[in-house]
Design goal:
single chain, 2 strands, rod-shaped
């Protein structure tokens, strides 16, 4: 009499041998998993301070000292963009620098137009 014992070792391959492929997974390559890169995930990106400063100066250029703060926003934006691109991914904030650049230009143009209108007399009672 034969028994259908699932624990019987008569039809199982020996321990450590590769079972014959029967439409299942192919045999694994020797060596297992590839070696891990040293250092883990790496440091998080830091936001460039000049990018933040350019954004703040661009916003301030709408309210006061637009000629000065607008120019400073443009200068800080260009410096920040160069630093971010040369940082090899360790710094972020390129969007902040771009927004500061655009706001600096808009603030500079608005204040220049305002100053031109005041100096030409088109706005006589501007300070009254």
């Amino acid at each position: 009499m034969s028994t259908n014992d699932p624990n019987s070792s008569s039809d199982l391959p020996s321990y450590g041998s590769t079972p014959p492929p029967e439409g299942g997974y192919p045999p694994q390559a020797p060596g297992g998993y590839p070696p891990q890169a040293p250092g883990g995930y790496g440091a998080p990106q830091k936001t460039n301070g000049k990018a933040t400063a350019s954004l703040v100066l661009g916003i301030v250029s709408f309210f006061c000292f637009g000629l000065v703060t607008g120019i400073l926003a443009i200068v800080f934006s260009r410096m920040a963009t160069q630093e971010i691109r040369s940082s090899n991914g360790t710094q972020s904030g390129e969007g902040l620098a771009k927004a500061g650049f655009i706001l600096g230009i808009i603030g500079l143009v608005l204040w220049a137009a305002y100053l031109l209108l005041v100096l030409t007399g088109a706005l006589d009672n501007a300070f009254a």
